[in-house]
Structure formats: structure tokens, C-alpha cells
Write a structure and sequence with these properties.
Elements (H helix, E strand, L loop, with lengths): L5 E12 L9 H9 L11 H16 L4 E2 L5 E11 L4 E11 L3 E4 L7 E5 L4 E11 L7 E8 L5 H13 L3 E7 L3 H10 E12 L2 H7 L9 E7 L7 H7 L21 E9 L4 E5 L10 E2 L13 H18 L3
Antiparallel strand pairs: 1-8, 1-9, 1-14, 2-3, 3-4, 4-7, 5-6, 7-8, 10-11, 10-12, 12-13
Helix pairs in contact: 1-2
Length: about 325
């Protein structure tokens, strides 16, 4: 397990009244509207009570079993999430993993004898950390989901949250957020691995010249990949890179006569092999993998709840500044 890393995805998100894209809820409005009980004055209930009811609703959704995704090949469940009073944070550990399809279990040192089987009614689970920040006086929240370099529950947890909010007539909309400091550090440590140029050949005769088998393929896309680039600092690379005319050769028949005729993508890699990419127009707006420090792990490489909570608190403060909260 020496090469297994803990990783983190960060999202900002909003809640919209269903079918009204621009009508955002304040979180205070969402909680009071949906978690006040009959006969209560929603404006006199303490916020912490509303938060605790929201957490209780999430826990009840599991019904003491695993919630499966639409394909029923992955599941999540938890009894270990809590509201942190005064911080507007809901966080905890969620167990999750893939269901089995008759997977055989072996001892690594014995390839003859099985020691068990994971059926489609069972799953192999790992603990994952998540944090959700929903300040009452804001329309923008923050969601953090920890993963491993070998697996993730990100997609199923987002699917779960989307269905949870939909129960209350609310659309859950998210955007990936990488703190500026982490993005800048990645760019300083990285180099350009390759550049690709992609165009659509609209002209039928051009497709025929390229290859007769392509003649009838409307929307045919061609990608030119440039690899084997000399390793150099990203910023030095772009000093020499002609962004206005990335391709100096005449490739008009491939639909690559002018820069606006094709899409240019830049692919990066840092010294640890972590990759990211962006279009030439937004060449520095990358979303590199956020790798968490080893110090917040338990000895078995799973997240230590107290340590990862403290570390992500620091990241949350940076995100709050960047979204002008």
C-alpha cells in the first residue's frame, strides 16, 4: 500500500428552485423552508437544530443499509456524520465501494485456494471523508470529497446528494474548485508533456482525399498530437509558444488553416507523474489532482478523521476567500 495516496476533490455549489436556473436559495431559506416542523415558527428555530435535522434526514436515507448508484455496481453508507456547531459544517466518514460479481478472494501468497467470494449482494468498502459547508447567509456552499489514488466515491456521493436535494424541489449544481495556491504550486513544478490540435473536416472532398473510407463521415474529427517535448518550465515554454498561430505548417485541407479552426489542448505532468490539461485559451486554468499529506492518514493509509478535518478546515478558509465570502 506504499503507493496509495489520499486525494481530495473540492466543489462550490448552489441550490436552485427546480426549473428556475437563476433563482438561488440562501441556505438559511432552504433549511427553514424544508426542516421546520408543523406548528413551529421557522424564524425562531435555532440554526443548529435545523442542521441536525438535515443530518438526521441524510442518515435516515440509508435505512441502515448501503445506498446503490443507478447501475447498482457501487454503494455508500454511513452512521458517522455530524454537524459542527458554529462552523456551518457537516462532515464525517462514509463507507463505500464496488459491489461484487462473484469476485474470488485469494491470499496473495496462494493462487490455488480461495478464502472467500464477494457476491453482487456484497461490496468491498473503504472509509472516505467528506465535508460540506453551507453558511446560512450565503447562496454558495463548498463540498469536499476525499478519495484514494485507487478508488473514489465522488460520483455516487454527488448522485446521492442530487437526489436528496431533489426531494425538496431543489437542483444541486456544482463547479470544480482548485485553490489558487495549489494550482500555482502545480504549475511551478510541472512541464508540458504534449500538445494536441483537433479539428472537424467539414469538406467532403477533403475527407475523401484524406481517405476514401472517411468521405461520408460528416463531423469527422482529426487530432494531431505533438509529444517528446524537451522538459522545461511551463512559463518558459509559453514564452516560445506561438499562441496566435500554434500550427505554422499548411494544413488547410485538414480544417487547420486558422487558429480558430481547431482546438489546441496543453497536457501537463509534474515530477510525481500527476497530470492536468487545459485549452490554450485557458492554459493556466487547470484542475490538477489535490494530493493530501501523508500526515493526515492512519497507519493503514485511511483518513484520520481528526487530522483530515483540521487540514481541510485550512483549505476551506482559502476557498472562502476566493469566493469572496
Amino acid at each position: 500500500m506504499a503507493d496509495i495516496n489520499l486525494e481530495l476533490s473540492i466543489y462550490t455549489f448552489t441550490l436552485n428552485e427546480k426549473f428556475k436556473r437563476e433563482d438561488y436559495f440562501d441556505f438559511n431559506e432552504f433549511y427553514r423552508k424544508n426542516f421546520s416542523k408543523n406548528g413551529e415558527n421557522p424564524h425562531t428555530i435555532k440554526p443548529e437544530e435545523l442542521y441536525n435535522r438535515f443530518v438526521g434526514m441524510i442518515l435516515d436515507e440509508f435505512h441502515n443499509k448501503f445506498w446503490l448508484n443507478k447501475d447498482e455496481n457501487k454503494g455508500i453508507s454511513t452512521k458517522n456524520i455530524k454537524y459542527r456547531h458554529g462552523r456551518n459544517i457537516i462532515e464525517g466518514i462514509i463507507n463505500g465501494g464496488n459491489t461484487g460479481y462473484g469476485h474470488q478472494i485469494y491470499d496473495i501468497l496462494d493462487n490455488e485456494n480461495t478464502v472467500g467470494e464477494i457476491s453482487e449482494k456484497q461490496l468491498a468498502s473503504l472509509p472516505y471523508y467528506f465535508k460540506m459547508w453551507t453558511p446560512p447567509d450565503s447562496q454558495v456552499g463548498v463540498l469536499m470529497i476525499q478519495s484514494y489514488s485507487i478508488g473514489s466515491i465522488g460520483s455516487i456521493l454527488i448522485e446521492f446528494l442530487t437526489k436528496i436535494f431533489a426531494k425538496y424541489g431543489t437542483s444541486f449544481r456544482r463547479i470544480v474548485h482548485v485553490p489558487n495556491e495549489l494550482r500555482e504550486n502545480y504549475l511551478k513544478r510541472s512541464s508540458v508533456q504534449k500538445v494536441t490540435f483537433t479539428s472537424t473536416i467539414e469538406n467532403r472532398n477533403s475527407r475523401k482525399k484524406f481517405n476514401r473510407a472517411f468521405e461520408d463521415s460528416e463531423g469527422l474529427k482529426v487530432t494531431i498530437t505533438v509529444e517528446g517535448l524537451k522538459k522545461k518550465n511551463i512559463f518558459n515554454f509559453f514564452k516560445d509558444f506561438n499562441s496566435k498561430k500554434p500550427i505554422g505548417l499548411d494544413l488547410a485541407e485538414l480544417g487547420m488553416e486558422n487558429a480558430e479552426d481547431y482546438q489546441t489542448k496543453i497536457y501537463y505532468k509534474d515530477e510525481h507523474g500527476r497530470k492536468a490539461h487545459a485549452t490554450i485559451r485557458d492554459k493556466f486554468k487547470i484542475q490538477p489532482t489535490i494530493v493530501l499529506p501523508l500526515e493526515i492518514s492512519n497507519t493503514n493509509k485511511t483518513p484520520n478523521l481528526e487530522k483530515i478535518s483540521e487540514f481541510t478546515d485550512g483549505l476551506l478558509e482559502k476557498v472562502k476567500q476566493e469566493i469572496n465570502y
